[in-house]
Amino acid sequence: MESPTTMNCREAVRRLDDYLDRELGREELVQVQAHLECCTHCAGVYALEAGALAELKSKLRRISAPADLLSRILARLEREPGRPSGTA
Amino acid sequence: MAAAEGADTAPPFETTLAGVLDGAYATAYRLTGNPADAEDLVQDAALLAFRGYPGFRAGSNFRAWFYRILLNRFYSDYRRRRRRGVTVGLEGFPEAHLHERAEAHGLGGGQDVVGRMVAELDATTIGEALDALPDGFREVAVLYFQQDLPYQEIAEMLEIPIGTVRSRLHRARGLLQRQLWNLAVERGIVPAGGGA
Question: Is residue B89 part of a domain?
């Protein structure tokens, strides 16, 4: 499924990870973008990968530190010898 | 009235620490595999960071600095304690993306299938698949998937070149997708074999 842009499907899909992560240089970014705008197949691939990635990241991010962890750390730092005054 | 804090004066340690604590704990939890070790690791890192804070350059990236301390502490003391399950091998590294996997199974464009797969696998299962990545790949993947950090910052934290981050992450994605796909097949979320 070739597109009229300078980047073909294979090249576009190979750069998809970096495109999703906004890690492409300006020139490649524009090329991938142009390809996705005119290739429905690759646009579908992009949508799928982007959706899956967002869902994975969202699920993995649901871990918070225990509510009292900061206060326990600060209490431990209070016992630190030579603690500079006015800190922690 | 006290003099205003200069531009090159670091804010109080507790303020900067509070801003990175959730992410640091989540990373520690994923690396150590249990909440008790995760808390200890974060506390150890906080203590080391506190001692080094007078030398911390104001305006530089505290998160990258703190994570570097945490990761070094993990490598030096906690990693060997870790009881790990089966680690996936790098052999037969899958290049295919999820859509290719879905298409190879005769599942059309695969968008609905993949969407359902990711939606139905719970966070614990996804976390375990992340845990099963080989050393070196797991750390990059944890910082990327869980902390959503840019490649450059991951490179700073792990003290490796950005190109290494990119290549490890690329392989980690493939391995993780293969793991998740296999789990989804095992659980009947995705049909096994070819044909829809």
Answer: no
